[in-house]
């Protein structure tokens, strides 16, 4: 969080200033950091000052912590630059951009086995987070309607999900006042156990969330089994509970390299799906998609029609204005790659993951939680007693420029520390070998340095 007041207090005493390196040649005065400068400056000087500051950031290509795209082709970058100025919401002014968004929605709905008879609907969003807020709201409104129609109370909605959900689900519950019902994951199994789901359901359950590629380990949850458990429960209870699939990371992976897996609209209770275009959809941030099985999955009350921009626009979004460029870039990838292109890229990422996972495993000190078979994400924990933690290892790798996060698993496996490597396009096999070399060296150094330090410490204690 940026604390304005901290800066403000400081500024009252001394003005904080930027002293740009080369820009100084062109400038007489320093630039205030936290106050709008009185006078402007030439464009090349402003750009240089900013570039100089940004130079000190991490290299996005070496950032193995994020799922978000850090590499796109030159043609895609050009197209993005050419279309930044199109406001996606202004469908009357930019009907072609609107048409492209519509085409993407249909392509994705078909990819997820939406049936033309059921008329799937959907929208682009800033990312999966916005898509999840919208899907969550639709579940809440549909539940409310069901309760009202059957004369039941509608003041205590709950949503059932694993503790391994991404933080956005907790946000949704807090922002929109829904009770989160968390099914804990346990040590050794970091996905939702289908047998446990049923005991969390009741009349007030607006829906169940299952994850295609969890944020913590990259594993697919057993979606078909979760689905079947809910189906049996609904049948015996005579109620309807929809399943939402959080396919933020897996939605552009499973259809290409796990086509046999049933996780999408092929399962009758799956009512809505979100996917991040800026993850394995291979687009720069931010674009996501929310898709519903059929028009009636989307409550009319949530769709607003506005006419400020000419024409009448139905909108269902949290944000109004947004650049059209990210949707155009998604469409570029669809045309440029086709199914075959996505298959080829994902297979290559999968094979790099498996290769790197095998090497990491060969060090014999890690237990692999995922090797990148589901989505190209490697996750592992220490299995041997070592004089260092994964957090130490993460720091060491950071010194070499790699960002590889270490973190704790969610409740009730919160004592287990893991490390995660997200393989993305732009991370080559050669880079994987260099990373492995750096991991191996870091482990060796941490072992010897911590050992040689320890006896001295204990000696000092003895004397
Ligand atoms: C990344 C992620 C999200 C959030 O998606 P954004 O596109 O970053 O908003 C939600 N759920 C899961 C499982 C994710 O991996």
Automatic annotation (TrEMBL):
Coiled coil: none annotated. It is an enzyme of class 4 (lyase). It catalyses: L-glutamate + H(+) = 4-aminobutanoate + CO2. Its cofactor is pyridoxal 5'-phosphate. PANTHER family: GLUTAMATE DECARBOXYLASE. NCBIfam families: Glu-decarb-GAD. Belongs to the group II decarboxylase family. This is Glutamate decarboxylase. It comes from Candidatus Methylacidiphilum infernorum.
